[in-house]
Amino acid sequence: MLQRGWGTMDELKTDTRRAGDLVTLSNATLDRLPAGIEGPSYDRAALTPGIVHIGLGNFHRAHQAWYLHRLMQQGEALDWAIIGAGVRPYDSEMRQRLLSQDCLTTLIELDPSGTTAEVTGGMIDYVPIEEGNGPLIAAMAAPEIRIVAMTVTEGGYYLDPATGGLDTSHPDIQHDATNPDRPRTAFGAMVAALRRRRDAGHGPFTAQSCDNLMGNGRILRQAVVGLARLSDAELAEWIEANCSFPNSMVDCIVPATGDKERALVRALGIDDAAPVTHENFRQWVIEDDFCAGRPDWDRVGATFSNDVHDYELMKLRILNAGHQIIANVGEIAGIDTISGCMENEAIAAFFRKVQHEEIAPHVKPVPGMTPESYIDLIVRRFSNPSIVDTTRRVAFDGSSRHPGFVLPIIRDGLASGTSIEGLALVEALWARMCEGTRENGTKIAPNDPIWDSLVAAAEAARKRPAAWLEQRQIYADLSENAAFSASFARWLDLIWTKGAMAALQDYARN
């Protein structure tokens, strides 16, 4: 698949190349890629679109787009090329970068045994980003588009924290309900496109969420149908009856791209404005529910299953919740990377104890994998020093990630009578992190869409721990549970009086 390795990341950093030695990534230079870097073997000029993907971040390009590229390398799925899209002004920068290199991407696989790279080409265009999303609506309304997929982060689905339903009071949702032809959101644009398709007789498309949400297809259905119902009940019924919204589980650790990653791709001999690094692991489990056809992703490693839920539960609870177990204490302790957190004996022991005693009891095995073996796999993946995944990135948007990944396990533990002590400590560590300073006195930069309110709650909780749990948009009725509240308060007090590591050691002893 990948042609060869070049050594470790540190070794590659020592390989400096002059600008004149670099291959500037484009269609015209694919035949001049450095030796050992495989590019598209298919004729990109012959590709035709079948997918619009909203949210062209690193994860999509290292995961879903990679699976499609691998199919195209086999001469298949050539009529399923991707058109990229975004709905916010800040997406324009990524659009400009990708269009400048014909939507090609260099993927760099980082592994302790060596670094490999390839150039993928399954994306062929990027929709202009305009207020009102007219170009996006037109792209999705085109009859050749049969799948509209998205990676908009788990916090981007306008969920009501109290009910789990669509937050119809949100200003963006209210705007789209009253301005259905000029929507702000991806979901409003999908509704507008589906109206055009229905009226033109083009039929529905499959709406495919690729975000880390339990029942992500169900949640996407809720957003699209629920929003349509606010402005056009008849259209909502048509969408409900004709469109499909498959659930899926996606998995690959993909760090953010910064100066180090751009230097790394240059060391390989390529000038790429938007390279992507990733680990040597991918998993994609998809419910086989596509109303207008689909690529055969299973031929290149994806799994079609009618039992996505158990795969989702294992991954979201062990990997995603696992990230929150270590990232917040890592920030407090001034540890920059996830692999660095796993090198810390106290944090690694904390991770394993919480996983085995408080999370694994609420996870079912899946074919070929038990919860315990999956924990061991995650330990190896998190410990990979070649993946420079920052604690800051993993801790970002805790106000979405804790309710999505950690709090459901606490609820299950309370309901079943299993321990929630370590998970209560996880929440106390998050509260301590949100106070905004590390234990060495340095400042933690804002790292959440509601950072200011989190800081205010964290400062109040220093004297009155209940102030943190009273954030009902996050904890709902969990603050009313006496056992959880008492455990949280005790851990937060210990963290403030003796330090985060003392709290971890106390948990390990008990």
TrEMBL record:
<dbReference type="InterPro" id="IPR000669">
    <property type="entry name" value="Mannitol_DH"/>
</dbReference>
<keyword id="KW-0560">Oxidoreductase</keyword>
<dbReference type="GO" id="GO:0016616">
    <property type="term" value="F:oxidoreductase activity, acting on the CH-OH group of donors, NAD or NADP as acceptor"/>
</dbReference>
<dbReference type="InterPro" id="IPR036291">
    <property type="entry name" value="NAD(P)-bd_dom_sf"/>
</dbReference>
<dbReference type="Pfam" id="PF08125">
    <property type="entry name" value="Mannitol_dh_C"/>
</dbReference>
<feature type="domain" description="Mannitol dehydrogenase N-terminal">
    <location>
        <begin position="50"/>
        <end position="298"/>
    </location>
</feature>
<dbReference type="InterPro" id="IPR008927">
    <property type="entry name" value="6-PGluconate_DH-like_C_sf"/>
</dbReference>
<dbReference type="InterPro" id="IPR013328">
    <property type="entry name" value="6PGD_dom2"/>
</dbReference>
<protein>
    <submittedName>
        <fullName>Mannitol dehydrogenase family protein</fullName>
    </submittedName>
</protein>
<dbReference type="InterPro" id="IPR013131">
    <property type="entry name" value="Mannitol_DH_N"/>
</dbReference>
<dbReference type="InterPro" id="IPR013118">
    <property type="entry name" value="Mannitol_DH_C"/>
</dbReference>
<dbReference type="Pfam" id="PF01232">
    <property type="entry name" value="Mannitol_dh"/>
</dbReference>
<feature type="domain" description="Mannitol dehydrogenase C-terminal">
    <location>
        <begin position="307"/>
        <end position="494"/>
    </location>
</feature>
<dbReference type="InterPro" id="IPR050988">
    <property type="entry name" value="Mannitol_DH/Oxidoreductase"/>
</dbReference>
